[in-house]
Structure formats: C-alpha cells, structure tokens
Design a protein that fits this description.
single chain, about 200 residues, alpha+beta, Alpha-Beta Plaits, globular
C-alpha cells in the first residue's frame, strides 16, 4: 500500500518512485541523467541517504532507500526533489528552443496547479512509497530485482547489468555510478541463490 510523506517512518526502508510531471521524458539527455547521479551521491555522502538499489528511466526514478540514524527520509525526499528541480531548471537552457519552451510550459502549468507561485514543478508530489521490511530478504531482493529489470522490460537492454543508469551493475560485481549500500554477505548469498527468480522477473530466458 502506498504511503505519502506524512506516513513515512523516519528510518524505514522504502521502495520509492519519483515521476516527472505529465511523464515528460526529461532524462533522455546525458546532462539530466548526470544530475540525478551526482545528486544521489551528494545525498548519500552529505545528507544521510542509504540507497540499496536505483534505476533512472526517461521520466521516472526508482529507489530502494532509507535514512541513516539521525536523519528523516520524508524530509530528505522533499529536499532531493527541490535540489534536483533547481539544477534541472538551470540546465534546461541547453535544450533546443522548441523542446525547452514546451518543457518549461509543462513545468509552469504543474506548479500553477499546485498554487506554487513563481515556481516550476518538475516532479509529481506522489512518491508511491512502499515499506520494505529489511528483515525479510525475499522482499528486499524482489524489489531491487524488479527495478533493475525496468530497462529490460522496455527493451532498452538485454540484461539488467548492461544498463548504465541503475545499480544492477553493482549487484553483479561491477562498480556503478552511484555509491549504493550493498547487502551484507548473507544477504548477498541469498541474492545469488535467487538468480533464477531474478532472470524470470527480468524476462530473461
């Protein structure tokens, strides 16, 4: 069951989805993808974010994450959206004129519908937060595998680890772009034992 920010536990682990307003494909250009990568690393290093898994698609971001002790995940989500919105709007001038004007119009309309005066809205307000019990390795693994298989389902890549903008590479022993928190050794062995399930979810025969 989805939870909004007001019901997110301060240090609970959640499967989160951040959608761009009107599903605009803003993350088709490397510059905008890099904004998310660097922002995630900044929040991991400086803001107390723990990321177990992530996947950035053209118009949404999936995370399996929680907050470190002394930090609040709900507050962090709000700050992350504001932080990335500011940088995206600053860099959007690099877009070709027609697309830039169209994107800014959509962001302006989204902000207006929320009565955000003189502001633009890049992300939808919903986070589609689903709580994950870290004591249940099955659930944690299934959620991570599910987000890794998103590019496979969309036929962007054949294998999850071939997709650069996710943590699938980290989970196969290749350093990825974001400094994620890997499961403990016993959890890692659990993931390896469930590789068949992973392939099935990913659509790999």
């Amino acid at each position: 069951m989805y939870k909004d920010n007001s019901t997110i536990e301060q240090r609970g682990c959640y499967y989160l989805t951040f959608n761009v307003v009107e599903c605009i494909d803003i993350f088709t250009r490397p510059v905008f993808k890099q904004i998310i990568v660097e922002s995630l690393n900044y929040f991991i290093e400086r803001k107390g974010l723990i990321v177990y898994g992530w996947c950035l698609m053209t118009n949404h971001l999936h995370l399996v994450a929680q907050a470190r002790e002394g930090f609040n995940l709900a507050v962090m989500i709000t700050e992350f959206k504001k932080f990335t919105t500011k940088i995206i709007l600053e860099d959007i001038d690099a877009e070709p004129e027609v697309r830039r004007n169209w994107i800014m119009k959509k962001f302006r309309e989204a902000g207006g519908s929320l009565r955000l005066i003189n502001r633009f809205q890049v992300w939808q307000t919903e986070n589609h937060a689903v709580h994950i019990d870290l004591k249940n390795s099955d659930t944690l693994t299934e959620q991570i595998n599910f987000i890794h298989s998103d590019p496979v389902r969309d036929r962007i890549v054949a294998l999850p680890e071939d997709y650069l903008y996710s943590s699938a590479r980290d989970h196969t022993g290749i350093k990825g772009l974001v400094n994620i928190h890997m499961p403990q050794r016993d959890e890692s062995q659990f993931i390896l034992r469930h590789i068949t399930s992973y392939n099935r979810i990913s659509g790999i025969q």
